[in-house]
Amino acid sequence: MRRIALLSAAVLTLAGCAPLEPYTGETAYIVTGECEGVEVIVNYGKLAKRKSFCVETSAAMNAKEVLSEAGVTIQGTAAYGDQIVCRVNGLPSADEPVVVPGQEPHVETCASMPPAFAYWGLWEKANAEAEWEYAKEGVGSLMLEPGQSIGLAFATGGKTPTPN
């Protein structure tokens, strides 16, 4: 059975990353060290500050369930469902354009595939020592084991960022 812990206030600063805000939800805690469950990292890029959570579990969990328990809401696309992530916690906004140098301002409708210059990448990591890899499945079918990590990173042109 999953056990979820709440850490009341924690701020984690990583080299080269913006400081994290305390998580105020009731289902996960901000990662401040080792995560014995599944680590969740959301790199909002230019949209917001990066956040990291730990969902404690002793069994495999579906990625969509892990994200939900971490307080991360996702929206898929009309054409591809949750196999393509369109929005994370409401970002990018449905009514504010994403501005990327060299591109026309883009307002995401979540109808189909997001443009190559403004999209969410879904990442997975086999263990703490492993490198981030693009997920081979969407959040609806990806299964995660304790010790693994899932990450979402918003790319805005140029090099695709990893969750860190």
Plain-language structure description:
- The protein has 164 residues and is mainly beta.
- It has one domain (1-75, 119-164).
- The chain is 4% helix and 23% strand.
- It is built from 1 helix and 10 strands; from the N terminus they run ββββαββββββ.
- The strands form 3 sheets. It has a 6-stranded mixed beta sheet with strand order 1-3-2-10-7-8, with helices on one face. Strands 4-9 form a two-stranded antiparallel sheet. It has a two-stranded antiparallel ribbon with strand order 5-6.
- Strand 7 (119-125) and strand 8 form a beta hairpin.
- The radius of gyration is 15 Å and the shape is globular.
- The two termini are 29 Å apart.
How would the global form be characterised?
globular
What share of residues are in beta strands?
A: 15-25%
Main-sheet strand order equals 1-3-2-10-7-8
> Helix proportion of residues, in percent?
under 10%
Largest sheet: 6 strands, mixed
**How confident overall, as mean pLDDT?**
82
Instruction: Report how far the terminal alpha carbons are from each other.
Output: 29 Å
